[in-house]
Design a protein that fits this description.
The protein is mostly helical. Helix content is 71%, strand content 0%.
């Protein structure tokens, strides 16, 4: 979605970039007995995703070896997962995460929501192309086969990537949409989910902010409350994710990071995905919001939750 936020990446293209020199450092770090993880992290965590792709090309040119295969054989555990995620072009990485979320028994709806409810039309289209190239199937077909009911309708609608992305606000139309949402939810017995789907999937972000404000003016409470009361299960999570992103996208991602680490055990797959995909976009802003919301810095949270070179690499990206 075009949210109109300032970008605040924590990983930016490296200034004096020399892919050949980087390839040599990585080769040295993996040659002989033992692996120099620190050198690998120092190089890869300080380069942009595109620069890492260039290093891989240089590595193959110089040594006739596949850098990703080499890294895979030299690293293990969560550090291996993190570094391999960093080495994938982002559209392919998102496509892989979506595919993994729908493969096997059950579906990881969190991944579907985290990607489809937060992306711009262009991003969704690029991910769809990558998905089809990798798996020979369309993302839409797999979503249809793997989800059901109102959640399926929401995912398929978002997958169409047809949101209005202008910044035009029509106050009169916002009042009408707010009334429509009220009639479709709180003012009727049962909920007309299709109205929520149509409005939340199609309207541009500033217009949605205006609609939510009008809804609050009419009812005296936030649209979130209505969704909490009127919906259940995955469609509720999906609609709330859209609302949260419209109101404050960095806050949505700060909450996802918090949830990946709080409680018993860490959801490392989720933590890796969030750090790898946000570090070149808005991680600076996410960190600020994280501190405000949880009275602790994201770095401290990661340090208390992760260890070793895996922790070092996550912190370098943040």
């Amino acid at each position: 979605m075009s949210y109109g936020y300032q970008l605040s990446p924590t990983v930016v293209p490296y200034g004096n970039f020399d892919p050949r020199a980087d390839a040599e450092i990585l080769r040295k770090a993996m040659k002989g007995f033992g692996t120099d993880e620190t050198s690998i992290i120092n190089v890869l965590a300080a380069r942009s995703n595109l620069q890492r792709q260039e290093i891989a090309v240089q590595f193959k040119t110089l040594y006739g070896k596949d850098l990703i295969k080499n890294l895979k054989s030299e690293l293990s555990g969560n550090l291996e997962k993190l570094v391999l995620a960093m080495m994938m072009p982002l559209p392919q990485y998102y496509a892989k995460e979506l595919h993994d979320a729908m493969t096997g028994v059950g579906t990881d709806e969190c991944v579907l929501i985290e990607v489809l409810c937060t992306m711009s039309n262009h991003e969704i289209r690029v991910i769809k192309q990558a998905y089809e190239a990798l798996y020979g199937r369309t993302l839409e077909d797999d979503l249809k086969g793997d989800t059901s009911g109102n959640f399926k309708r929401l995912m398929v609608s978002l997958c169409c990537a047809n949101r209005d992305e202008s910044f035009d606000v029509d106050p009169a139309a916002a009042v009408e949409d707010a009334k429509e949402l009220l009639r479709a939810g709180e003012l009727r017995f049962g909920t007309d989910e299709s109205t929520f789907n149509a409005i939340l999937v199609q309207r541009n972000v500033p217009q949605l902010r205006q609609i939510f404000q009008e809804y609050e003016n009419i009812t005296g409470h936030a649209i979130d409350n209505a969704i909490e009361n009127e919906f259940s299960g995955d469609v509720k999570k999906g609609l709330l994710a859209i609302v949260k992103c419209v109101k404050n996208r960095p806050a949505f991602f700060a909450e996802q990071l918090y949830k990946s680490m709080k409680g018993l055990g860490t959801d490392d797959d989720r933590l890796i995905r969030l750090v790898v995909t946000r570090c070149e976009v808005d991680m600076g802003e996410i960190k600020e919001v994280f501190r405000q919301q949880y009275n602790e810095s994201l770095e401290d949270f990661i340090s208390g939750d992760c260890s070793g070179h895996y922790k070092k690499c996550l912190l370098a990206l943040c």
